[in-house]
Amino acid sequence: MKKKFIFTFLFLFILIKLPISNGVEIDVTEGKIEPLPIAIVEFNQENKNEDNYSSKIQNIISNNLGNTGLFKILPNDSFLQSESEVFFQPLFSDWKLIDANFLVSGKVTLENNRLKVNFKLWDVYQEKLVINKNISGVSRSDWRILSHIISNLIYEKITGEKGYFDTKLVYVAEEGTQEKKIKKLAIMDYDGNNHEILTDGNELVLTPRFSPDGKNIVFLKYKNNKASVYLMNIKSRNTKILGNFSGMSFAPRFDPNGKKIIFSLTDRGQSNIFIQNLENNEKFQVTNNKYINTSPYFSPDGNKIVFSSDRAGKQNLYIKGIKTISSKVERITYGKGNYATPAWSPRGDYIAFTKSYRKKFFIGLIKTNGKGERLISEGYLTDGPSWSPNGRTLVFFKTVKNINNQYETKLFTIDITGNLEKELITPNQASDPDWGPSIKY
Amino acid sequence: MLNFLKFFILLLVIFIVSCADNKKIPISGADVTSDSNQEGNNDASDGSEISVSDNMDSRDKTKEEVLVEELVEVGDRVFFDYDKSRFKNEGVETLKRQARFLLKNKELTVRIEGHCDQRGTREYNLALGERRAYSVKNFLVSLGVEESRISVISYGKERPQSLNDDEDSWAQNRTAITVIN
Fold first, then answer.
1. Number of domains in chain A
2. Could you report the predicted ipTM of this complex, rounded to two decimals?
3. Which of A184, A204, A225, A245 to probe the B interface (max B CBs under 10 A)?
4. pLDDT of residue B61
5. A431: which DSSP letter?
């Protein structure tokens, strides 16, 4: 048993950064991840006949932690102790027998349409209670959000990283046949629930991206034979054009403060990068040459951008400061193939990108100094990596063949180690995902 | 098959128009068809004549259709090599014919739609499609077509002509198509 404990400790220390180990960063070059076994017991609930929140909450937590790939969720029927006994005091030897490293149990009460939860997280091998928390006053309709918040707290305690289970994604839902695809903006919880379509499909829409507060999106829309950047308030669905430019405006993103939009604008066939201030509509030109300069993306501090340009013949990634127009441009990719669609990690250290080289397509990572390039996923027509808010996971899209040998475009998530790639299920085909922030309650 | 169908529709359209206007409508660039269509379609002439002459709207539309078909006949598109925005050399003759067509039909305005094969990223292809469309516009302008009559739009890889993942399909998708507004 002691040996087992040491193994567990080592595993955590190396792979998922213990919260107590200050300054130890994840080494993303690590190889395979061994999922950590965790037992999540059905919550106790006195009056289940009205609505069974106890198992609903258990299911959501299990799904969330399982989705990360970092945890192995132990099956209910392997549990030796009942949920009421566990909640009072676990018999640790019973949980060690089934190899549970951590144990979650809780109690849920419904009073006047409000949910109250007490939940506990135990470290089985240390035989220690590590979380004992009460959450109350939650509207019963928000049981799902409540479950996500509990999941966040468990995830944060064990991994030392910020939870992202209360986030949403926007993406482009693709309907219709391959010959005539109808594209609509869609929004959903990170796990695919609460799916909503935001546009009617009459106009072609592409590349939706969240504002930092998650309340607005910026995207590309074709209207009257012109492609332009538009803004939409998600709640009201009010939509307005960013500006009436003579060329095509595209590849938009918000800055980290949500006060500016960076985008590409065409003029006589050239594509250059501009920043528009949403408060005073002032426009600032970032690049000025005859090439393609596109897919701009701000650094987390907002002082620099990374973008794709073919100024050196093929597409490469460049970093440029934006405080002054004369800030120098640094090329960061020198490998073979084309580098495109960069996305700066919210941690600041890595840039994710799309790469194509001889009919092969990849999602890769590179440090901001141009070192340590790693390709973490290969597929057909992979594109558009977007970071989870904690910088641990990427969502992207690629085209796969279905059982009828037809191409379908779908969303996938992958851990930055390159492990744990899995499909993110959507009702239809899907592309252009953007991972939003945690929702404020 | 598709070409045959287009040709057939062209014949029909020309026939209807020429019937309605006493075969006096000038159909520039379509002289190849004038003889055969008069011979082949005598049976249907009565019905067509009535419906067309009774309805001015559909007659106007028919004229538009003639122009569209004429543009197709002239060659409405040019093609590009992978990741290139200068059209292939065989496009030069096509664009010269397009220019003559546009100089003759002064009332027309057109847009040039730039397209790419699927292999680039969404955003890069939008930029590349724009550059392709602009290179066609630039060439037509150099042949004397007024700049103000030509707009450009890029569809990137959003409107592929062919959906397969082989070189032939990709080549069809790397195109700039001139469309009458």
1. 2
2. 0.87
3. A225
4. 65
5. E
A217 vs A186, A213, A234, A239, A276, CA distance in Å? Answer: 11, 10, 7, 9, 15
Q: Give residue-wise pLDDT tens across range A329-363.
A: 999 999 999 999 999 999 999 999 999 998 899 99
Q: Residue A373, SS3?
A: coil
Domain B76-180 in this protein, CATH class: alpha beta
Q: What is the pLDDT of residues A362-403, one digit of tens each?
A: 999 999 999 999 999 999 999 999 999 999 999 999 999 888
Q: How far apart are CA A364 and CA A355, in angstroms?
A: 7
- How far B99 CA lies from chain A's nearest CA (Å)? 19
Segment A300-329, tens digit of pLDDT: 999 999 999 999 999 999 999 998 777 899
Q: What angle do CA A382, A387, A22 make, to 5 degrees?
A: 135
CA-wise closest residue to A175 among A161, A187, A160, A186: A186
Locate B157 and state its tokens. Answer: 């890889």
Listed in order, the ranges of chain B carrying CATH 3.30.1330.60 are 76-180
Residue with tokens 């800030």: A327
Q: Are residues A146 and A221 in the same domain?
A: no
Contacts of A270 in chain B (CB under 8 A): 131
The yes-or-no verdict on residue B54 having pLDDT over 80 is no
Selected residue with higher pLDDT from A208 and A83: A208
Partner B contacted by A126 (CB < 8 A): no
Q: Does B138 touch chain A (CB under 8 A)?
A: yes
Q: Are both A353 and A289 inside the same structural domain? A: yes
Do A128 and A176 sit in the same domain of this protein?
no
- The 10s digit of each residue's pLDDT in A151-178 is 999 999 999 989 999 999 999 999 987 7
Of A225, A308, A380, the CB nearest to B153: A225
| Residue-number span of the structural domain to which A152 is assigned | 2-159
Is residue A251 within 8 angstroms of chain B, CB to CB? yes
Q: Which residues of B touch A315 (CB under 8 A)?
A: 124
Q: What is the mean pLDDT of residues B111-133?
A: 95
Tell whether B123 lies on the interface with A, counting CB pairs under 8 A. yes
Give residue-wise pLDDT tens across range B70-97: 899 999 999 999 989 999 999 999 999 9
- Nearest CB neighbour to B122, from listed A207, A226, A269: A207
CA–CA min distance A356, chain B (Å)? 8
Q: How far apart are CA A254 and CA A210, in angstroms?
A: 7
